[in-house]
Sequence to fold (224 residues):
Amino acid sequence: MEKKPNFSGPRKPFGPRPKPGQRGRRGERVNKDPYLTNDQIRAHEVRLVGDNVEQGIYPIEKARRLAEKMELDLIEISPNAEPPVCRILDYQKFLYQQKKRQKEQKAKAAKVVVKEIRFGPQTDDHDYNFKLKHAVGFLKEGSKVKAYVFFRGRSILFKEQGEVLLLRFANDLEEYGKVEMMPVLEGKRMSIMLAPHKVAPKKESAAKEESPKEAQKEVESPEA
Fold:
């Protein structure tokens, strides 16, 4: 009777399993993750920053021991620095804070809307005033206005006339917007960019009203 080889399949690696989003022992990632943690960090020494540690350069083994002692994770936040910069934090909490910060930044970033208005080099007053009225509305609603004069064929000879038209347009809108870009000729069109004025916050009047007694005071003239 032949003896069966004592083979029970591949051995499982020793040590704790990687957390979700972390790499395995052989550098394979379980999920995509921009940060290395704990045993994944290959640098010989790291710079520790943060409020919960004494900042400075530490050997990697000492930095790992500090993280284990605090029951937290050693997170490499700046791998391209010399030496890499790390923090000791709870990894899942760190990821949550990063996502929250990104959402706040996106919410603060206002979307810039640019409205375009097209003129011809010989625009009449009726058409000009009609488009000027639209530009006033765009600037009031907070949009930028890009006005341009399009030159067709031989009308490029009237480029000076187009520049005068755009400068007049900017001057008529001076109350509602400011010039971000002076008239520039690009190919067959000359354009100018206007941005709305920032609305200043209303300030409460700091002036105090005079008391009734002070208002009733009369200046008596000295007798001769």
